Amino acid sequence: MHIALSPFPTLPLAQLVDGTRRRLLGLGAALTLPGCAWQSSLKNAPAVTLPGTRQLDLRAPGMPGPGAPERVHRIMVAVPPDPPPPQGYPVLYLLDGNLLFTPTAQLMRNRFARGPSVPTQGAVVVGLGYADSAVLDLSARSYDYTPPAPGPATDARGRAEGGADHFLDFIDQQVRPLVEASWPIDRARQTFFGHSYGGLCVLHALLTRPGSFQRYVAASPSIWWRDGLVLQALPGFLAQAANRPADAAALQLLLTQGEREARPAAPSTQSSPPASASDPARDAIRRQRQNAPGIPALMEGLRGAPGLALRYASFPGADHGGAMLPAAQQALAMALQD
């Protein structure tokens, strides 16, 4: 059988070429002009924000010293896109929130990238930071993350130290009630994470108030601070652990470190810098790190502690700074464990 088709309309070649040229010129103008508008408007475009996040500023007393102004803590929260499980969301509390909240919150959201056909769960991520533009507020963290200590109340740069107990009270009395009043929270799955000085604060919290959290992640902790002062809390922690009920859930502590941090410092082959280029404060820290006890001493002191599950992880090729994000990823994984 043959089916008759209507002839396809045709145009003279010259008319076809002319029309095509006009269309191409019009397309070029359409691509060029919006491009210019995009370039000019991007300079004044709104900042990037992460979906499902909130932030709130809370005032706190100033650091010690005459005329110390009030400080403002910035609390950043990321909430999973899925409804909470019956027992509520687990929570991951992050120190150095200005630095670590954004990548950790995105890691949590990435778990849902495959769509509803792949079951997963998320955690509420709470970044504890400061309401200023600095990635790290060095003065604030030097005070908030270091335990109370005898002797000078400042470090070699004149920064106040020893405010960790006040800061932990701030978390317990102001931050946690706000979080728990805003979303359903699983109080049996709360994780505390910190790196460097933040790791020191995490260890101080574990050893002096172990009931505050169930899971602790101390990344590259500054155990060397004040010649290992934090280790003096070990006997009290062990005595309290021995009296924990036999059916109580075990506390979890993950210690992490970059592989390059664990290596002994190689002697320098370069000539010493001139005195004008030397940094006495940094030199003092370097000497403390070399001579004070570190992670091995802590692990030995905690070995066999009743009711404590202790783990250690080293990140190949990572130095002190490079071990931060892998540790945050491990902290998120620990927070999500059932």
List keywords for this structure.
338 residues, alpha/beta, single chain, globular, eight-stranded mixed beta sheet, 10 helices, Rossmann fold
In words, what does this structure look like?
The N and C termini lie far apart (70 Å). 38% of the residues lie in helices and 18% in strands. With 338 residues, it is α/β, with parallel strands linked by helices. It has a single domain, classed as Alpha/Beta hydrolase fold, catalytic domain (Rossmann fold), CATH 3.40.50.
Please outline the major beta sheet.
8 strands, mixed
**Strand share of the residues?**
15-25%
The secondary structure category is: alpha/beta
* Overall outline: globular
End-to-end CA span: 70 Å
Q: Please provide the ordered H/E string of secondary-structure elements.
A: HEEEHEHHEHEHEHHHEH
The overall average pLDDT, rounded, is 84
Q: What is the CATH topology assignment?
A: Rossmann fold
CATH homologous superfamily name?
Alpha/Beta hydrolase fold, catalytic domain
Helical element count?
10
Strand order of the largest sheet: 1-2-4-3-5-6-7-8
What's the layout of helices and strands?
Elements: H1 13-42, E1 53-60, E2 71-78, E3 89-94, H2 97-110, E4 124-130, H3 138-144, H4 164-182, E5 185-195, H5 197-208, E6 215-219, H6 234-242, E7 251-258, H7 259-262, H8 280-291, H9 295-302, E8 308-315, H10 324-336
Parallel strand pairs: 3-4, 3-5, 5-6, 6-7, 7-8
Antiparallel strand pairs: 1-2, 2-4
